[in-house]
Amino acid sequence: MADVIPLKIDAGQTARFNSTDAVLNAAGFKVTSTKGLGAVFEKSQGASNQLWPAGVYTEVVAVTPATGYQSITPARWVVPARGAGAASGVHGTVRFYLSDGSTVDRTNTSNLAVTETRDAISIGKDGLTITSVGFGATNTTGGDLTTTIGPWSLDGSQV
Amino acid sequence: MTVSAVLNNDGTWKVSGLNADAKPDAVPEGSFFFETDTGVYWCYISSTWVKTGPTGDQNDALDGSYGAPSAANVYVTETDPRLDGTASTVAQATYYTAVTASTESETFVDGLGGNSISPPSDGDYFVIFMGECSGSNSSNQLELAVGKNSTTVAQADTARIVDTTAANDIKTFDSGTILTSLVTGDTIHGIFRKSSGPGSSSLYRRRLIMLKVS
């Protein structure tokens, strides 16, 4: 819980805290944040032609909430198709990072990208928030592979 | 059109694309592929896309394809189903018309209306007898019917067409029925009767028409 800081401003004046405006209304007794509690969150990452080390998940980018927000509530995202040809063992992956440090992976073994929605899956966690989302791929083979994976995208909100 | 896939909440995918599009592999078992240009659904079963609903040869038969049925193509018809009905209709739409007009005034108790015909070939026929009828007295009861090998209205094959207020009016009656399994030796009669009351009755422009239906 953040510290409570005494605030004294006159009616019509604006106080700004960490990029968030707070305005004292005309009656002088109610403070309303001009930034909503939730905001649209949309991130995407283009295809990445790169080396995918054997047997591990490799992340291209991790998307995080904007300043002032603590977590992401994903609504829908795209898990890209697996690598082509000899790189078919590299599977497109979207990784959810939770507030306790654990992760939940959504991996695609098909040669077709799939759009997933939050109401179609169960995260299987209780009392946690999603702090960031990783766009990457998992090389399920025993050797390093170079191939193109992507694009990834995610829509939702941040709070 | 780009092939696209959406995850269902049962873990399967709903995939959409055109008939010509390559179907994806390694999708969850039970996923559906919908061809947006043909309306055909495929289901991913045991790592293979299987067309759902009617099988391919069933669809072919519905589309009008035909040929020699085989164990692998049992539903294909031997003849084009779209043409069978048309062909039979044309071949069998032969009709025969008996007397086409008369002006005689006749009085009957139970009697022939002056028309009779024998079928030119065995088969089923639609037969209709029609004419303009009138009676000279208001108590006349005029009746019209069609019968096979019968000469009285009571024995006719059709329901009698009756008008009990025919005095001096000319009214068009017709009575038709389908007579099945006729043979060339049968005689079809148009039957007309004035069954009650004094005076006379008349039948004009009488026609007996036969149409072979099978």
Structure write-up:
The complex is a heterodimer of chains A (159) and B (214). Chain A is an all-beta fold and 159 residues long. Chain A folds into two domains: 1-35, no CATH class; 39-158, Jelly Rolls, CATH 2.60.120. Chain A is built from no helices and 13 strands. A four-stranded antiparallel sheet of chain A has the order 4-13-7-10, with no helix packed on it. In chain A, strands 6-11-8-9 form a four-stranded antiparallel sheet, with no helix packed on it. A three-stranded antiparallel sheet of chain A has the order 1-2-3, with no helix packed on it. In chain A, 24% of the residues are buried. The model of chain A has no long low-confidence stretch (mean pLDDT 86). Chain B has two helices and 14 strands. The model of chain B is unreliable at 86-105 (pLDDT under 50). By secondary structure, chain B is mostly beta strands. The longest helix of chain B has 12 residues, at 81-92. Chain B is elongated, with a radius of gyration of 32 Å. Chain B has two domains: 4-89, no CATH class; 95-212, Jelly Rolls, CATH 2.60.120. Chain A binds chain B through residues 81-82, 109-117, 119-121, and chain B through 3-9, 13, 15, 24-27.
